[in-house]
Amino acid sequence: QVQLVESGGGLVQSGGSLRLSCAASGRLFSISSMAWYRQAPVNERELVALITRDDTTNYADSVKGRFTISRDNAWNTVYLQMNSLEPEDTAVYYCRARAPGDIGPADYWGQGTQVTVSS
Questions:
Q1: According to DSSP H, which parts of 29-70 are helical?
Q2: Which of 12, 26, 52, 66 could bridge 16 with an S-S bond, Cβ 3.0-4.6 Å?
Q3: What are 13-43's pLDDT values in tens digits?
Q4: Phi/psi at 63 (nearest 5 deg)?
């Protein structure tokens, strides 16, 4: 089991920056990757950024060059640095950890943190 708690969301003006944090606890040694997703009203939840055990990263096209995902070595905390924020980035941001489960990989989710970007 892995528990996740996000923080760092808030209200920011367009062009501003925020850093989200995801604090993980539990069976951290089993985690193979962690990611940030977001979900805006009436939209599907979408992948924003992902980082793997060997620090390979992937980003949604819409955030490339503006967002950076990083982690500490022990998976205690994963960060999402968000720069040049746009109103379209407004959403609830969720942290997800993936680890082996009883039948294939298991995903663990945090409760989400709201990011609102004003124009």
A1: none
A2: 12
A3: 999 999 999 999 998 888 999 999 999 988 8
A4: -120, -5
